Amino acid sequence: MIFVDEVGDVYATLNHSPWNNTTLADYVMPWFLFMVGASLSMSLKKFKGTREARLRGTRFVTERALKLFFLGVLLQGGGWIMNGYNLATMRWCGILNRIGFAYFFAGCIELWVPERNRERVPEYTPAAAHVAVFSDQAYKWAAASLFVVLHLALTFGVFVPSWEARYGYAPSLSNTTAYAPSKYLAVSERYTIACDVRGAVAAPECSATAYFDRLLLGQEHLGVWMSKRLPECSTCAPQQPGHWAPKGCEWNPQAPSWCFTHMYDPEGVLSTIPSVMSVWIGAHFGRLVAADGISRPRGVLIHWCALAAALSALGWLVHFTAWPMNKQLWSTSYLLWMAGSCGAALALVYALVDTASPKAPPPLRTRAARLLLAPLQFMGMNAILIFFFHGTASALIDQLYIATPKPGGGTLHVCKMNGLTETPCTLTWWVHEELLAFIGDDATRHLVYVLIKIGCFMVAAWACYRKGYFWKI
Known about the structure:
By secondary structure, this protein is mainly alpha-helical.
C-alpha cells in the first residue's frame, strides 16, 4: 500500500486505474479484504456453539468493525494530523471504513447463518472432503451471494436522473491546472450533467455508484478522484501528478463538464456492498487450514490452487463478456479476479513457507523463503500500526523545516520544486532533493526515497516484534 500510494505519483503503471481495467495499486484493497476473511474464519471459532457464545462473538465483531470505521474516518476523513476536520466536507468513506463494513457482515454470516444439518462422515474420501467444505457452508455462501446480487440489481436497475453539479471546480478553470482546490460553486457557475439512464457503467458521471454516493453522502463529501485522469478530462492521463511529479497537468480544453465536479467516492456506499463477498471468499480459504478430511499441506494446496484458478478464469470471462474490471465500481469481474489472484499468492507463500515437515529440518528453499519474507511478516503482524503511522509519520516529519539564509538577512522556509510550485523546505524535501540529489532522474529519486521509507517501517516493525509490542483493535 505504501509503495503504490507514493510511487504511483511518478510511475503511471503503478497508479490506480482512472476507471476500467486494473493496475498494481488496484490489487491492494481487495487483498486486504481477502486476508481479513482468511483470519476471520479462524478467530471466530471460539464464539461458535451456544447462543451466548455467538452473542459474545457478535459484540466482538461489532466493536471491532466500529473501531475500524472510526479509525478510517480519523485517518482519511479530513486533515489528519495537522489541519483539522471540516464537518461540512468530511469524507465518511475510506479503506478501513470499508473493511469494517465488510468484516461486520461477513462475521455475522459466520456466526449466525447455520451450517447444513447432515450426518458427519467419519472418514471422507479426498473428493468428498473438498466438496463438503462447500456444501457444509451452502447457506452461508447463499447469504454472502445476496450482497453481490443486491449490488448487481442496484447497479444495473436503478434509474439515474440528470443532476446539478454544485461542488467541485468551475468549468471556467479549463485553461489552468487540473488540481485547483474544490469549492461550493456559485449559482451562476453550476451546471447540469445529463444522464436519465440505467446501468451506465462505462463512465463515472451517470453510474449508479456515483448516484448513491451523491444521494446519501452529498457532493461536498465526495471528490473528483481517479476519473480526473481520464484522457477526456486532463492532459496528464493516466498519470496522476503528485508531490514529486516532474510535470504539471492541465484540463483538456474539450473536457466534458462532469470532469470538474465531485461525483463519487472510490470506497463509496454502493461499491462497498459486494466487498462482503471478497471477505467471505477469504474466509473459505482460511477455513481449509483446519477442514475435516483435507490433508495438509497437499490437500489444502490442491483446493486453494483449483479454486484460485476457477475464480480467476471466471473473473476474466466476465471482464471480456459483460462487465470490465473496475475498482471504483467493485465490478463482479474485479471481485472474482482479485479473490483468485490473492488466493494464488496465498497458496504460493504457503507452499514456500509452511509445507515443511515438523519432524525434519526445513529444506533450503523453505529457510530462504522464511528469511526473505520475514520483514513482511513483521509488518503484517503490526498491520494497523503501520497503516496508522504511514501518513502520520510523514505529517509529523513535515513539521520539521530546513531554514535557508535569505539574501539581506533572515531565513527562508520555502523552496522551489521543479520550477512548478513553491514547496516548504521540510526534512522530507531535504532528504528527497538534497540527500538523494546524486540521482538525476526525478522518478528514480522518488522511487529510492519511498523504498528508504518502507525500509524504515520494516526496521520499526522488527523492533516492535522483538519487544512483543503489537497494536490490536
